[in-house]
Amino acid sequence: MDYRNGKIAQQILELQNEDGTWGNEFHSFAIPTNKRPLTTEQALRRLKYLGFTIEDVPIRKAVDCMVSCLRGERRIDNYWEKTLDWDLFTKLMLSTWVKIFEPDNELALDFAKHWANIIEKAFAGGEYNHEVYRNAYMEEFYQNAKGSREVDFISFYQMNLLQGLLTKEAEGRMLDYVISNPAGIYYIYGKPINELPKDFASVETSRYLAAVDILSDYPSAKEKLGFVVEWLEMNKDENEQWDLGTKAKDNVYFPLSDSWRTAEYRKADCTEKISKILKKLKSND
Is the per-residue pLDDT at 88 higher than 90? Predict the structure, then answer.
């Protein structure tokens, strides 16, 4: 189903600034509210799940703006966090979003390859070595990892940025490490991926699936996430559909349809999203 012409999408597009951004800040994954305008990240995430691609003018404008920032031609905003190397973290954020919509972008790939080099070295011994990670970080970025999002690489950004750039061995070792991480994937899901949500019809499952969706873009995920496939197959109804329930409507990942007033649209949304994940996890190499 094409959700790009729906009411939800149009409401987001109407808030886009002339330069391709949204609101006054780029960074935030918090749930949007009526009183707080969308940040650029919130808008991009929502539009991605509604089916927008680089072929759509609003996304092209946003990516062009982010690329301009990566070139140093402008700043994305005036926001700053002292606990991080904010310039480097901003480059991480921008490169990730550019690569999500334009995987072959040279600027984003150049930055992503630095992270791939770090991860390759950190797992070269067969398992994760934090000391090697920190030394590799210094070699790639000429400074020590400063903030928690740099010291701990398991976040939305690195998990998207590293896709397609690791050797099979390093990718498999990293996925094992990520899937068993007690803290989950930062910004996305705060529990271990290898522990399934207790209640299938829940907002927790929606967020769990968001994490699985990111990992499913790694070729090794088909082997590593077989237990998720079995769990999803067990939870479809007699009509071959899935239903995450009304509480899954958090205005982040759901809804996709303009209304969930009837279970029909809710089930259609849930089924479409889960079917896409299963397709990736079941696909042939």
Answer: yes
